[in-house]
Structures are given as structure tokens and as C-alpha cells.
Amino acid sequence: MLFELQNLTEVGPGGFRAQELHVGLCGLAYRARVRNAPTKTRWIPLDKAAPSRAAHENDWSLSGRVIAFKPLKNPLSGSDLYWIHLDLEKMNLEILVNQRALRGDTLAPGVTLDAEIWLQGHVLDDLALSSRYEGVDSSCSTANFWKHLKRKN
Question: Is the separation of the CB atoms in 6 and 27 below 8 Å?
Fold first, then answer.
């Protein structure tokens, strides 16, 4: 899998002597379409899916089920964005989509998202790896948290 590595210089002098290099992946979508109809999961290089639109070896065409999403605003440009968490069967991927690049049906958990993305990664240091647990969401009341954990008999 090819992707653009963002912080290679931050690895440090001993970074590549390790047996493993932990990298977080994400995608920046320049085209995206929401569809209510389910479709087969896809993850292929864009130069195979749409050769005329592929600009770089890190461009990918994908299709997956939306797990979650959140609207964001770019603090520098003021652009409206969506952070979208996708289920691609063998892995999950977070992508960012500019609201102007999003077409199709209404974005919601469970819908299908087709996207063309630039895949990039960020090297995770020991601190980032140990802090992957995000904890309890303080914006959610305790009663709501426990309500979702009930088992139906």
C-alpha cells in the first residue's frame, strides 16, 4: 500500500532501526459521493479505477460503509469539512472531505461512501501509541452511556 508519509523527519535517529514502524493512515478526499444503496467494498489504486483522473501513486478509489461522521470547520480557511470514519471490511479508515466535494444522498451512519482520496500517513511515536484510548465521552451523560450497554434477552 503506498501513501504519503507526513512526518518522516520526526522519527528520530533510532526510528528505522526498530522492527516495526507504526503509522496512522487517513485520506483526503477530493471527490466523494454518498449512496443509500449498499455496494461492494472497494479499495483500489485510482490509476486502475480511473486512469485519466489519477495524478499520483498515492491516489486511491474506495467504497465503504460510513461508521460515523462529524462536521468540522477548517480554522485557517473557514471551509466546511466532514470527518468520516469508513468501514472497508479489512480495515477502517478516517477521511476528510470538503463539503463542496461531497455529492449524492444525505450523509448518515450506514450509508455507502464512494471516494477518491489522497492517502497519507503519520508516524506514531510511543506516546501516540499509548494514548490511543480516548476515554469516556464527557459530552454524553452517564445514564445514556449505560443505556447503550444493556443486553437484550
Answer: no
Beta strands in the chain (DSSP E): 4-5, 23-35, 42-45, 59-73, 80-87, 92-98, 102-104, 112-123
Work out the number of other CB atoms within 10 angstroms of the CB of residue 56. 12
pLDDT in tens, 107-133: 999 999 999 998 887 777 677 666 655
pLDDT in tens, 48-75: 888 777 677 788 899 999 999 999 998 8
Q: Cβ contacts of residue 11 below 8 Å, gap of 6+?
A: 21, 123
- Distance (Å, whole) CA 71 – CA 50: 28
| Widest pairwise Cα distance in the chain | 55
CA separation for the pair 43, 47 (Å, rounded): 12
Q: Residue type at 27?
A: G
| Cα-Cα end-to-end distance for the chain | 43
d(Cα 108, Cα 85) in Å, to the nearest integer?
11
| Integer angstrom CA distances of residue 18 from 10, 14, 38, 91, 106 | 14, 7, 41, 24, 45
CA distance linking residue 20 with residue 143, whole number of Å: 41
